[in-house]
Every structure is written in structure tokens, then in C-alpha cells.
Amino acid sequence: MFKGYKSPWMTEELQIFEEHVGKFFKQAFVPHAERWNKQGMADRDAWNIAGENGLLCASIPEQYGGAGGSYLHETVIADQEIKTGAASFGIGVHCLVAHYILSYGSEEQKMRWLPKMATGELVTAICMTEPGTGSDLQAVRTTAVRDGDHYVLNGSKTFITNGQHANLLCVVTKTDPDERARGISLLMVETEDEGSKGVTRGRNLEKLGLHSHDTSELFFEDVRVPVENLLGDNEGMGFFQLMDQLPWERLYIALAAVSAMEYALDITLKYVKERKAFGKTLMGFQNTRFKMAEAKTETTIARVFVDQLLLELMRGELTVERAAMAKWWTTQKQCEIADECLQLHGGYGYMMEYPIARIFADSRVQKIYGGSNEIMKELVARFL
């Protein structure tokens, strides 16, 4: 994945998959990048096309319609999505929801939802954040009150990735408002189901970066959700299910950060070796060489670290602490390196037609979602 370095988990089969994925993104998505960024979301059929090419639910077993791969396949997809410069959408969130269903869903739920997620017929979102709650998941105010064989769902969510396209929502809700962690449950809401009237999509939010990601507000008013749509055998397990899956989500963010760092470094090296100033290339200046040396060093350290954690994940050994370390440190370095690389582009770096400008804009949110970097440091501190 990085010149002069080969990830210890990279196999011949994964290299072949990497070539397939890279070629797919270049042919299917890169030509639409500018249009998708301007319209604020990818076309809906992009999900179906991605599904046809095995990019959705790559780590889900074949018996549920997935590709039968592992988290390593998801890593390759995320890496190539970034490095090809493709206008992206929330494949990572889709993968996350698939693993919630795989880990906690009943056999009937797995068979009902996962095959359609693999084809792109179902697009998913996870609805955590609410206005005023931020990273404090225990303080969510959305409620699901039992009424016979249904829950009645009320509340609102914001900053929801895939919010405009999603037709299967994993909603973090309170089934017991008097409890904090033990009052939280995960409820799957099918927005195209006749009984799910009351789900309203707000505007597609205008963001600093990630312009091709549809990100929305969602509102729930007396939405009747069948009891069998609860994830898990009992109410009150949602917070613990979230905590169990968050290390992978945070490592995924870290992996994406490293891929973006590598991409920024690669395109900037090409630029400074070609761009001339005062009669020589930018690479001829000591300041440029030192900045690029620093960036390569930090990027290599980041890659080695997250590769180690990925191996731990595959062995079932990834801890909350180490995932939090990776998430905050790599995203901090991602923003710093994107800034330095943009600076070396000069005025052209500020132009959106240059990839470094999009890398810079897309990087900033990495320090916020998946748990802010301040929260990550608090988590690490608890293990000191």
C-alpha cells in the first residue's frame, strides 16, 4: 500500500482484490466525482453498482449474501476509495451496520436484511448523534415505548451519513428513559415499510468536506416499529453492543486516515518534483525536502501502527484503548500532513480542482466523528 513497505497482512489474493477494487473505482466512480460533489451525494444507483461488484458487505459470510471476506477486504476497499480520488459515499457505515446485524441479529433478521444490503437494494445508516448530545451516547433522548407488538419511536437525529439514501436505519434509542447505559437499545427501522410512517428526512447538510456523502437530519414521530426489529434478545443491550463494535469503527477511521496521508504524500511528491520556482524544482529546496521527510516518517509510523492493530483485530485482541490511540493520533497527523502538503502546493493547493484541496477538507471531520479526539484521549487515560 505504501512505496517501500508491504503490510504484513497483505496476501496475493488481497493484492488481486486491490487491483479489482482500484480499477472499479477509477472506471465507475471517478468520472462522476465532480458532479457528485456538486450535487451533495452520489447517485442512488451507485449503491447497486457497488453491490454488483462485491464492494458491499465484503466481510459478511456468503450464506447471508456477502462476499465471505474479512475486515482485511474492507480495509482494501477503503484504501482504494481514497487513493483513486473517487467521489465516495458511506460504504464504511454500511459495513458497520452489517456487522451489528451479523453480531446481534436473529437468524431471521440476518436473512431478511443482509442479502439486500449486499446488493445495494438496502442502504443503511446508524443513527447515533442527536442535537445537543454529541459524543455522550448515554444521554440520547430518542425514545421507543413498547405498545403491544410494536415500539412507538419518537425523537430526532443529526449528522447521519447516508441519511438521504438510507432505507434501513439502525436507531440508537432509549427503551428505558430512567436508565443511562442500560436504557439504550438498537432498533432497526425500515423506512419503506408501510408501518414506518412518521420518518422524515431533513435537508442534506452542507459540509466543509466529504461533499459526495449525503449527511442528514432525521425525525421520528410516532413511528411504529415491530418488536422483532430490536437487535439482540433483550432491551437495554444497545450501549454495550455499540461499545463492542466501536473499536473496529475507530480503527477503520484510523486506516482511512493513513490512506489519506499516503495519498497526500504521493501526489505532493509528484507536484514538488515537477513544479519550478526560482529556476529549480520545489524539491530542490531544503525546506521542501525536510517537510516531505517528516511527512513520510510520520506516515510510515502510522501505517505500521494501524497494521499491527489490524492484525490484533483479526486475532480478536484489539482493545478499546489501542483503537482509541490509533483513532486520535492518526487523524491528528492526517490533518497536519494534509495542511503541510497543501502549503507545498502554494496557491494551487487552495483550488478544489487539485486533489490536495479535497484531502484537506475531508480530513477535518476525522477528528470529530467516531468519538471526538478529546474523548479518545479520555479513554486512553482511563488505562494509565
Map the helices and strands.
Layout: H1 12-29, H2 33-39, H3 45-52, H4 71-83, H5 91-104, H6 107-119, E1 124-127, E2 143-147, E3 150-161, E4 168-174, E5 184-190, E6 199-204, E7 215-226, H7 238-274, E8 276-277, E9 280-281, H8 286-314, H9 320-344, H10 355-363, H11 373-381
Parallel strand pairs: 1-4
Antiparallel strand pairs: 2-3, 3-7, 4-5, 6-7, 8-9
Unreliable parts: none
- CATH fold type of the largest domain: Butyryl-CoA Dehydrogenase, subunit A, domain 3
What is the topology, as strand order, of the major beta sheet?
2-3-7-6
CATH architecture of the largest domain: Up-down Bundle
Order of helices and strands: HHHHHHEEEEEEEHEEHHHH
Main attributes of the structure:
alpha+beta; three-stranded mixed β-sheet; 11 helices; 384 residues; Butyryl-CoA Dehydrogenase, subunit A, domain 3; Butyryl-Coa Dehydrogenase, subunit A, domain 1; 3 domains; Butyryl-CoA Dehydrogenase, subunit A, domain 2; four-stranded antiparallel β-sheet
